[in-house]
Aldo-keto reductase family 1 member B10
Amino acid sequence: MKKLKFTNGDQMDAIGLGTWKSEKGAVTKAVKIALENGYRHIDCASTYGNEAEVGEAFKEVFEGNTVKRDDVWVTSKLWNNAHKKEDVIPALKNTLNDLNLEYLDLYLMHWPVAIKPEVGFPEKAEDFLSLDEVPLIETWNEMVKAKEQGLVKHIGVSNFSIPKLKGLMEETDHTPEMNQVELHPYLQQNELLEFCSRNQINVTAYSPLGSGDRPDRMKAADEPSLLENPVIQRIAKKHGANEGQILIKWSEQRGTGVIPKSTNKERIIGNLASAGFQLDEDDLKEIAELDEHFRYVTGKFFEMEGNSYENIYDD
Ligand code: A2P
């Protein structure tokens, strides 16, 4: 398994278990299965609404001593309603409490978007705060403090475009250590990867399998399927693997992190086994041709008439 390196020498397993969309009733078992079968990287977020259930798994596994806390990389994310400076560390402490942890390995600003503290998920323009009211640097400076206090070992961002990364980097000496973004063969993000690599920012791929279990309101009726793409299917057959494993391997081979979500035992175990084979040059060439700049997570749910968020990916 490849590992992503951080400037202080810490390392993160490339393949982790995603928990977005994992049902509360299934995620405890999924995380336990993952940890008992070799996963050492779990990706969480407070807005997934299941951190307390993920925390039950951590408590059981770490107290049972089958796996040591320090051997596992845990990521979580600051939700958009806690961007004000007085809200960042309390939100982080809630996450730590839910996850039953003393520290996180990585804490990410989930989106370059601020919403009002009392809002869960924004539905109207009035639910937002503008970035003039709560600049990203205000939020970031608190995340730096959280790192200095030892509550988190590394800090980064998610869903940041090159212009947003540049904007933040101009205002701080603490370059984000990670940018977690949607990344798969339909959205290969070559320019962003190159920028991040030049600036020692690691990248993690979310929705690597196309997130087919997203709620219908987030889906376009005619969205293309990654798992049913004929090129991916052919390569899967060639390697005696399933399509998900090909997609995971592709990300791992490119040097990014990758966090496939599953609550199914066979798929959880099978996805980690993606680390065990190699895609060859022909495979990589064919997959490179699938790039069509297609996003499953369009971000349109944050772009409303009357708020200050337009084109949040700067595409
Ligand atoms: P399940 O949880 O039943 O395994 P993403 O990580 O892109 O968000 O995709 C998650 C979706 O992909 C879930 O619906 C998950 O279902 C499914 N999935 C996970 N692993 C595989 C796999 N190896 N092959 C096919 N589907 C998978």
About this structure: The domain at 3-212+223-302 is CATH 3.20.20.100 (TIM Barrel). Residues 182 and 207 are 6 Å apart (CA to CA).
